[in-house]
Design a protein that fits this description.
The chain is α/β, with parallel strands linked by helices. Helices cover 31% and strands 19% of the residues.
């Protein structure tokens, strides 16, 4: 299968089908973010429980599932290209069915099979249980009476923004009006596609924020949290199975629990998770700036197994651009917040991301962003060119920035960050850290590869290991003390002590 395919180990999930029948082989290609990956893991769990056999080789699969991303134009193109690539295995290989799932379905439900006739079925982000019928394991059904999902209520903010048209799909040809409205729980079967020692837990789904550049609310629905006890139960089960690192995800993890009137929900959840034996690293991604309060910071600082790591996408630093983005804030406010974070949490690792070329962004506003990045000195930073998405409020804005200027600004911002990163990485040389060993490096078999608590899975730089103590027997998935020997722009080289 392509390099986006999922390598999984078939878990001992009881099958319901006739054990004498040859199992249907299903292969998955999961694109996009970790939230999409969890959806793929849930669909694989449902299929495995129903008797399907999961395979990492598309050429061996009877059914191929492509779980797509549709957040920005580049992700949409990658999704379409992957569907076309997999369609060849149906027309030229042994695959009998091609199923398309995920965000692209919410955006182009009717258009996908119309333009790519090799596609046999589509499964939206709110229809994961329909994967069974799509794969031919159960009859198609309009009802969801046996759904393993728990339907949850939304926040008042979500209801208000629904009335304001925030979730409208009227401009999308082929999209259905109904929004996704449920979320998996701890009883839902799930097959992990991550290494045995690491797992994501989706604690919330959907988004109520009014960001004018974003169509995630239309793709994923209103914000809704999983029940507190459900998240804890899943984390406990994962820890018993050997998982040592858990990463909490959601469109906005810092709003966790607000839909059932839980104050400081994320902080309370982190405290409870920190008490689970054998969980060595706990972190959360996708924080919203104005939701990072003192209670949350103090909770992170108070627990050794909660990583001193905050991922807070700020999107811009110019107050005027942020106002057009319908986010609020600005450089001065953000700098005060960052100072508080670093004062409260010693050795904090701070990650953010920005959008350049938002409609109307002037050179002066872009320079404000550059100055802010120089002053803030983030440990990790991503920069993305504005993507003009139909259905987003910003799509209707005038004064669009030319594509060449967007790319020029993106490259310049990343050049600034590269110098900051190089300086901050050099300061780590000679220091010792706990290292989670991942295994042989993807770059070369001559090196091992791992991560420290400063490195979230998949998105941050790498730690290459070129020296292991004499006679040392090291194994992937285990923690070791390492010393940083070299620093590059984004990556580190370490020796295991």
């Amino acid at each position: 299968m392509s390099d986006k395919s999922l390598t999984v180990e078939q878990l001992a999930i009881p099958a319901r089908d006739n054990p004498c029948a040859a199992p249907i082989k299903v292969g998955f290609v999961s694109l996009g973010c970790p939230k999409n990956l969890v959806d793929s893991e849930v669909m694989m769990g449902l299929l495995a429980r129903a008797g399907a056999q999961l395979t990492a080789r598309a050429e061996d699969a009877d059914v191929i599932v492509v779980n797509t991303c549709s957040f920005i134009d580049r992700a949409q193109r990658e999704s379409v290209d992957t569907i076309l690539e997999m369609s060849k295995l149906k027309t030229e290989g042994s695959a009998r069915k091609l199923v398309v799932a995920g965000c692209l379905v919410e955006r182009y439900r009717d258009e996908i099979p119309k333009n790519i006739p090799e596609v046999d079925a589509v499964v939206g982000t709110g229809e994961l249980e329909n994967i069974l019928a799509a794969a031919g394991l159960t009859p198609a059904s309009a009802g969801n009476s046996n759904s393993p999902f728990v339907i949850l209520e939304s926040r008042p903010e979500g209801d208000a923004r629904l009335a304001q048209g925030r979730f409208s799909r009227e401009s999308w040809d082929g999209a259905i009006a109904d929004l996704p409205n449920y979320l998996y729980d701890d009883t839902t079967p799930r097959v992990l596609a991550t290494p045995k020692h690491s797992a994501y837990i989706k604690i919330a789904e959907g988004c109520d924020h009014p960001c004018s550049f974003c169509i995630i609310p239309q793709l994923r629905g209103k914000f809704r949290s999983r029940r507190f006890e459900s998240v804890i139960a899943e984390a406990q089960r994962l820890a018993r199975s050997g998982v040592r690192e858990i990463t909490l995800i959601g469109q906005d993890t810092t709003c966790y629990g607000e839909d059932f009137a839980l104050k400081d929900g994320l902080a309370l959840l982190l405290e409870k998770l920190a008490a689970i034996p054998d969980l060595r690293w706990i972190r959360f991604l996708y924080a919203y700036p104005n939701k990072i309060n003192g209670r949350l910071l103090e909770t992170i600082a108070a627990h050794e197994n909660i990583c001193s790591y905050i991922d807070v996408p700020l999107q811009h630093a110019s107050a005027s651009v942020l106002k057009r983005m319908k986010r609020g804030g600005g450089a001065e406010l953000f700098l005060r917040s960052i100072e508080k974070m670093r004062r409260t949490i010693p050795d904090l690792t701070l990650r953010t991301s920005f959008i350049v070329g938002f409609p109307g962004e002037t050179e002066k506003e872009f320079e404000e962003l550059c100055d802010f990045v120089r002053e803030a000195e983030f440990d990790w930073m991503g920069a993305f060119g504005y993507s003009d998405e139909e259905g987003a409020v910003a799509h209707r804005l005038e004064k669009k920035v030319a594509a060449r200027d967007i790319e020029r600004r993106r490259k310049r911002l990343m050049q600034i960050q590269r110098q900051i990163s190089k300086k901050r990485k050099r300061a780590l040389v000679g220091k010792q850290f706990d290292l989670l060993l991942e295994g042989v490096s993807e770059e070369t078999e001559l090196l091992l590869e791992g991560r420290t608590a400063m490195h979230a899975p998949e998105i941050d730089g790498k730690v290459f290991v070129n020296d292991v103590r004499e006679g040392g027997d090291v194994r992937p998935g285990e923690f070791y003390c390492c010393e940083i020997a070299e620093a590059h722009d984004y990556d580190l080289v370490a020796r295991i002590l």
